């Protein structure tokens, strides 16, 4: 899944990419009394701005989330 968000700290739009099928070996799933948990690697890609600085400093700086769809292959 690909999500677009605005990073207020870096002042740029980024994509947050979840669940790349080619990297499913990085995922982990387990359950407990609190429910089922699924961990996976998250990738960031700058849509505009500094392509070398696309990882957000703080998650609270992200706003205007929009689900774009599945990741392009």
Summarize the structure.
By secondary structure, the chain is an all-beta fold. Helix content is 0%, strand content 49%.
- Strand-residue fraction? over 45%
Q: How many alpha or pi helices?
A: 0
**Unreliable stretches covering 5 or more consecutive residues:** none
Most strands sheet: 4 strands, antiparallel
Spell out the helices and strands N to C. Answer: EEEEEE
Strand order of the largest sheet: 5-2-1-6
Our Rg estimate from Cα atoms comes to: 14 Å
Structural class: mainly beta
The strand count comes to: 6
Q: Determine the N-to-C terminus distance.
A: 12 Å
Helix content estimate: under 10%
The count of domains is: 1
**Overall morphology:** elongated
Oligomer type: single chain
Mean pLDDT: 81
Question: Could you explain the architecture of this structure?
Answer:
The chain is mostly beta strands. The protein has one domain (2-69). It has strands at residues 2-7, 12-18, 28-32, 35-39, 42-46, 62-69. A 4-stranded antiparallel β-sheet has the order 5-2-1-6, with no helix packed on it. Strand 1 and strand 2 (12-18) form a beta hairpin.
What features would you highlight for this structure?
4-stranded antiparallel beta sheet, 0% helix, 6 strands, mainly beta
């Amino acid at each position: 899944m690909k999500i677009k968000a605005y990073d207020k700290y870096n002042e740029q739009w980024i994509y947050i990419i979840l669940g790349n099928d080619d990297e499913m070996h990085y995922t982990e799933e387990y359950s407990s009394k609190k429910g089922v948990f699924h961990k996976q690697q998250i990738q960031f890609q700058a849509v505009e701005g500094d392509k070398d600085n696309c990882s957000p400093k703080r998650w609270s700086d992200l706003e205007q989330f929009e689900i774009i769809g599945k990741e392009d292959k």
